[in-house]
Amino acid sequence: MLRKTLAVAGLAIGGLWAPAGFAQDIVIPNIIELSGGGATVGAMWKNGSSMAVEEINASGGILGKKIKLEFIDTASDPGKARAAMQRALDDKPIAIFGPIYSGSVSATLKLTADAEVPQVMGGEAGPLTAQGSKYIFRTSFGQNVSMPKIANYLRDGVKAKTVAVVYVNNDFGKGGRDAITKELAARDIKVVADISTEAGQADFAADVIKLKGANADAIFVYLNEEESARFLREAKKQGLNKPLIGETTLLGQKVIELAGDAANGVKGHVGLTVDAPVPAIQEFGKKYEAKYKSKPDHNGVKGYIAPYMIKAAAEKAGKLDAKAIAAALHGMTITPDKVPGILIEATWDDKGEIDRISFLGEVKDGKQVITETLPKLNK
Amino acid sequence: MTDFLQLLISGLATGAIYALAAIGFTLLWQTSQTINFAQGEFVMVPAFLALIAMRWFGVPFVPSLLLAILGSMLLLGVAFRYVIVGPLIRRGVLPLVISTIALSILLKESVKDFYSAEAQTFPTLLPDTLITVAGVSVSLAQLGVLAVALVTIVLLQWFLAGTRTGRQMQATAQNPTVARILGVPVERMILYTFLINAALAAMASLLVSPIYLAKFSNGETLGLIAFVAAIVGGFNQVRGAIAGGLLIGVLDNLAAAYVSTAYRQAIPLILLVLVILFRPQGLLGRKEERAV
């Protein structure tokens, strides 16, 4: 009761000074990693989504209404993410953005499914879309899509017969490790070392020694941003001279920035990058850099397309209704000629899985260089 | 064998940083019965003081390092002594412990809000040049960390045992009342230990940040490991803290390489439990005696 009274009082006071139309804005809660281990990815996502919302509002909003993002910090903690989600859903938003860490998505996806609110998130762990939620939507490939691509690359591009896997011991890392192990086995590639590391780990000396001892044809590195950078520095120090292969993160801008020289020579699959040979996405990269004085990585792009997904789906549904938006997004293909903000043509299936082109790349002279474009899976 | 040496040297370099932080625990405990749970944050903050000097005010690298040490002595030494420890110590150990926990949160959140929540690269004094001896490759930066930490520790030991002020600090630690009767300026000695603690923490900060990046949350693990190191080595002996720090650094690496990477974090804690069970005064500590 008190809460309601306060809310009414707040609205009344707000109404006195707020510009016309304020009360009618659509608020979309953005529940993301603004501190803790995921702070880097959260900051990129926040900037990307803010930029998209500014553009959408400048061109008339969604179905005539302006959007306002409400940023809520999960502190990279699934428990806090869940509590924040519960509170955010009380206000019956038309959509939720985030979280980005798979563990936090996993802890919240049941809540959005029960509340029937579409959750546009950044998690990449394979199982997230396999739990039957009709309201979860990816902004980047799940591991079930990216790992087969990496495994193909290890077999055909690197021609590896043996691979060492180093992963971070959290939902993201374990999901990736399980998926790649399965894919490698299917291609007769042997995993000769399976090394678990901790989130936030500082010293990778022992891990690199183990990798040197394993003497694999290639090393698949699946860590979060900061740990990737620390690992690469240690690998360079100890002269680890096997091909280091990664999935998106390892070749990301933040890792290159933090690891410096040590990132040179890293290769792998990149789901999403502003260095892609696609004019729209390069244009986005320049706009972002001009605005935020840093180069966006895939998380910046993921954050940027989220509001455009909701805009396209709401316009297709013809109403600002959570359930209708989710239904519209299933099976929908959004193309840049109709919605330029989507940057690259993308399709969402009935599980919320995304399909679009992706890339192979490597880091040269402190820059990510794209060497090949891989087609959409179902085309 | 080369692997073992490699692990040993990496471990010692990391351990030396733990040791610098762990000494702080013993110093403050000895002279003022302060268990400083913000010690990890004391190691995190100076790197950001240097970054602020460099990036906001354009101060060159080396002067910023000196400013960071000076700033840390003022903020984490003098201010900590007079604003937090001074008024609270009269109320007993527990309120002080709680307030240092609050301080750790305050420092962490302040750095996050006023600087950045993201990891920052930190320039290094020594180049990343590799030296390879008998198959063991060590970077100059890593050797530098080890050398600076060891020299600092030796100087500290000399200061405590070989100078008049050092001996007065020892006296203050062993029995403040008698020391006061003998004319030792006890209050000033206590302030000195706070200043030394802040300077050591700043050294650790400036050594660790180029390797592990500067981040607001760095103190969480560092503080915990330094605390474990101080207990394992002996909470009432500076040399115990040093041994504890080095031991944990090496043990962490060896455990990861020869036991399991998945359980590396558990090994120091298992050691902690064993020490508490069988040698509660710590490996080099003495029962019921105080000395700095």
TrEMBL record, chain A:
The keyword NAD does not apply. Residues 26-366 form the Leucine-binding protein domain. SUPFAM superfamilies: Periplasmic binding protein-like I (SSF53822). Pfam families: Peripla_BP_6 (PF13458). InterPro entries: BCAA_transport, Leu-bd, Peripla_BP_I. GO terms for biological process: amino acid transport. The keyword DNA-binding does not apply. Keywords: Amino-acid transport, Signal, Transport. Residues 1-23 form the signal peptide. Belongs to the leucine-binding protein family. PANTHER family: LEUCINE-SPECIFIC-BINDING PROTEIN, PERIPLASMIC BINDING PROTEIN OF ABC TRANSPORTER FOR NATURAL AMINO ACIDS. This is ABC transporter substrate-binding protein. It comes from Reyranella soli.
TrEMBL record, chain B:
This is Branched-chain amino acid ABC transporter permease. The chain crosses the membrane at residues 6-29, 65-85, 92-111, 131-160, 190-213, 266-284. One of its GO terms (biological process) is amino acid transport. It holds the Pfam family BPD_transp_2. Keywords: Amino-acid transport, Cell membrane, Membrane, Transmembrane, Transmembrane helix, Transport. Its main location: membrane. InterPro entries: ABC_transp_permease, BCAA_transport_permease. Belongs to the binding-protein-dependent transport system permease family. LivHM subfamily. It is a multi-pass membrane protein. GO terms for cellular component: plasma membrane. One of its GO terms (molecular function) is transmembrane transporter activity. It is found in: Cell membrane.
